[in-house]
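Chain A, query sequence.
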Amino acid sequence: MRRRSLSQFSLLFLLFLASILRVSGQSEEQPLEKFILQAEDQLRITFPGAPELDANIQVRRDGVISVPIIGEIVAAGKTPTELENLLADKFENQLVSNEVMVVVLESYFTYYLEGEVRSPGIIRSFRQLSVLEAIIAAGGINKVTGKMKSVVVIRRKGDKYQHFELDLAAIIDGKKDGAFVLDSHDIVSVPQRVW
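Chain A, predicted structure.
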């Protein structure tokens, strides 16, 4: 009887160990979320071979940065590593060492909330928020007048606007999965309930 319980314990332990290894293997396969530069980010660009060019630079609203010697470069939409590589290529014939380092000093995500939220207006965050998180940051939906079943997100892409309608009531009730993650400068509109 003791042998039987010991073998059952060994089998359970092996199954447990296999499940841990499988979970850790899956997490290694998932790609890490990349940080994408955007307008208004504050960058520190350093040149180890030419420290006189080191500078703190802000990404302009049009997504461009002005770099000494080479001029304007589009930074928004790139990762810091991609920007480093681009700058290194641009400086290849200008400097003895074209090594470049890009560090993000500050980055904000700006969201606009209007309609039936307790504190409509602008929300700035150090990280991307989901629609639900942004609404909570604005004090939450007015439960008497706010309509949670048809929250609208308006996103500008170039000169056009995209509209997304979300049922937050179903997400809160656990009937729907997945978070709608906002892009910087998205507009979240919580409509008024029609009585």
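The chain has a mean pLDDT of 82. The chain has two domains: 42-106, 109-190.
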